[in-house]
Automatic annotation (TrEMBL):
The organism's place on the tree of life at top rank: Eukaryota
Enzyme class, broadest EC rank: transferase
Any Pfam family the entry gives: Aminotran_1_2
Keyword list, A-Z: Aminotransferase, Pyridoxal phosphate, Transferase
Provenance organism: Polyrhizophydium stewartii
Cofactor: pyridoxal 5'-phosphate
Taxonomy of the source species: Eukaryota, Fungi, Fungi incertae sedis, Chytridiomycota, Chytridiomycota incertae sedis
Name by which UniProt lists this protein: Aspartate aminotransferase, cytoplasmic
Signal sequence, start to end: none
Protein family (similarity comment): Belongs to the class-I pyridoxal-phosphate-dependent aminotransferase family.
Alphabetized PANTHER family for the sequence: ASPARTATE AMINOTRANSFERASE, GLUTAMATE OXALOACETATE TRANSAMINASE 1, ISOFORM B
Subunit note: Homodimer.
InterPro entries linked to this entry: Aminotransferase_I/II_large, Asp_trans, PyrdxlP-dep_Trfase, PyrdxlP-dep_Trfase_major, PyrdxlP-dep_Trfase_small
A GO molecular-function annotation: L-aspartate:2-oxoglutarate aminotransferase activity
Length: 408
């Protein structure tokens, strides 16, 4: 069979429904009361994307900087960016930072960071991988494509309490083969919006320690979840400070609004500086054969902001503006449902954190929300709080009230 025959035999891959598809059908919908809660990106109170003013400032400074050119970057990217990324997630005072016990590599946003980490583990630590159920749809695909054959799930969501299934999580990690890989969301779990409390993280760490599991944190929402960079990093810092060697994927899509600049970082925290250098060389080997070296613009923006105290303070303020707006929409939705007397309990709306909320609405209810009320959201009942604003939150609550009373 010729190569052409084999290519003509390739079956079509059915694309998942990305936020851009929602946006396309949402845009085409002429109904003026339509609401888009499918999009996984921040929107301001007018429903518009927001370019952070500090990002605009940094962009202008970069364009005006005559010393910058378009030469290739190093394989592992801009060092001032990757060093600042590690300080951001671990804290500047972390012993791992002072002792240079980290390998850090600039990546193609958070997705690229998870993929680079998966490729690294596939070479040096092939073991069962545990992903949460539910999780961000790409996790399974990334580990599968990296060559992992044994991908298992831990039940994360308790539909009865609409909260964390801690008992199941602990039991699964206890029963897992020693040295398994645990993929954890350190904050703003996607899609549930449910995070373990600090004490619950300690329990998870205890089991992971006993079983010698490998921890891989996928951190796509630092600062975006609670509005506090420290709070959103507390799980990662706890594990690292108590001696774990961990992998950390960071994304600057949400917290800098740099979605299409594909700016991220993968770090591996090791026991010794020598091991960090070894790990760093292996990350470079993978990147080199993959895309040679990363793009510059997004990383230049982040590096400029994180390394300049004045810009950094402005960024933290603007990050808080985004987080606070989302928190205020949670409150507004909860209050509207309470006022309407919508059957069921809705505390989870305010207890959950970050951009997403797992409403507990059924696929049938989601369908009616779409067909009757022009609400765009994923079939699993997940809504992006960023799509709510002071003009549409009441309307959405009334639509939810109707489907909860009339559709099973
Ligand atoms: C849990 C999680 N990981 C990683 C990502 C990757 O984001 P990006 O590749 O845009 O940085 C996302 C984005 O939605 C996410 O929710």
């Amino acid at each position: 069979m010729s190569a052409a025959d084999r290519i003509s035999n390739i079956r079509r891959w059915r694309r998942p429904t990305p936020s851009s598809t929602f946006t396309a059908s949402y845009k085409a919908d002429p109904d003026p009361s339509k609401i888009n809660l499918g999009v996984g990106a921040y929107r301001d109170n007018d429903g518009k994307p927001w370019v952070l003013p500090v990002v605009k400032k940094a962009e202008q400074a970069i364009v005006a900087d005559g010393s910058l050119d378009h030469e290739y970057l190093a394989i592992d990217g801009i060092k001032s960016f990757t060093d600042a990324s590690v300080r951001l997630i671990l804290g500047a005072a972390s012993p791992a930072v002072a002792e240079k016990r980290y390998a850090a590599c600039q990546t193609i946003s958070g997705t690229g960071a998870v993929r680079l980490g998966a490729d690294f583990l596939a070479r040096f630590k092939m073991a069962p991988v545990y992903i949460s159920n539910p999780t961000w749809a790409n996790h399974r695909a990334i580990f599968t494509d990296a060559g992992f054959k044994d991908i298992r799930e831990y039940k994360y969501w308790n539909p009865k309490t609409r909260g964390l299934n801690l008992d199941e999580i602990l039991a699964t990690f206890k029963a897992a083969p020693n040295g398994s890989i645990l993929l954890l969301h350190p904050c703003a779990h996607n899609p549930t919006g449910v995070d373990p409390s600090f004490d619950q993280w300690k329990m998870i760490a205890q089991v992971a320690r006993e079983k010698n599991h490998v921890i891989f944190f996928d951190c796509a929402y630092q600062g975006f979840a609670s509005g506090s960079l420290e709070r959103d990093a507390q799980a990662v810092r706890y594990f690292v400070d108590s001696g774990f060697e961990v992998l950390i994927a960071q994304s600057y899509a949400k917290n800098f609004g740099l979605y299409n600049e594909r700016t991220g970082c993968l770090s591996i925290i090791t026991r010794t500086p020598q091991l960090a250098q070894n790990a760093s060389s292996q990350l470079c080997k993978i990147v080199r054969a993959n895309y040679s070296n990363p793009p510059a613009f997004g990383a230049r923006i982040v590096s400029l902001v994180l390394n300049n105290p004045q810009l950094n303070a402005e960024w933290e303020q603007q990050l808080k503006t985004m987080a606070d707006r989302i928190i205020s929409m949670r409150k507004a939705l909860f209050e509207a449902l309470t006022q309407l007397g919508t059957p069921g309990t809705w505390n989870h709306i305010v207890d959950q954190i970050g951009m997403f909320s797992f409403t507990g609405l059924t696929p049938a209810q989601v369908k009616v929300l779409h067909d009757k009320y022009h609400v765009y959201m994923t079939e699993n009942g997940r809504i992006s709080m960023a799509g709510l604003n002071t003009s549409n939150v009441r309307r959405f609550a009334e639509a939810v009230d109707w489907v909860v009373r009339n559709v099973n």
